[in-house]
Amino acid sequence: MIVKVDPASPVPVFEQLRAQIERLILSGQLATGAKLPPIRHLANDLGLARGTVNKVYDALARDGLVATAGRHGTVVLAVDRGATTHDVTAAAEHLALVARQLDLSDAATHAALSRALLAVPRV
After folding, report:
1. Angle at the Cα of 72 from the Cα atoms of 49 and 62, rounded to 5 degrees
2. Are 109 and 96 spatial neighbours (Cβ–Cβ below 8 Å)?
3. Residues 67 and 31 occupy one common structural domain
4. Lower Cβ count inside 10 Å, N or C end of the chain?
5. pTM of the shown model
6. For residues 80 and 118, what is the distance between their CA atoms, to the nearest angstrom?
């Protein structure tokens, strides 16, 4: 599972991680029945408190995306994957808003998105 957090981002690390795992599930990159990494391992890998990762897993469980079975791990549930186009549209709108707030040109915004797409490997 490829996720990363940016502690310098204005978006809280909890939300960064929750949103990334949600997108991986909705896109099908994390298939139904796939096990999420143990809380302790993911927290260590990302340099986060275990409580933060635990809250993320709890939030995903409340949203019906995963089921937590204690020591047996956390697994991805079957979900409606039709929301992915909406998610990308919402992310694009957010990017456009941030770019406008920062007074970036359209060219600079497109270039930043292109660099980001090249930096993130396809799974």
Report:
1. 65
2. yes
3. yes
4. C
5. 0.68
6. 28
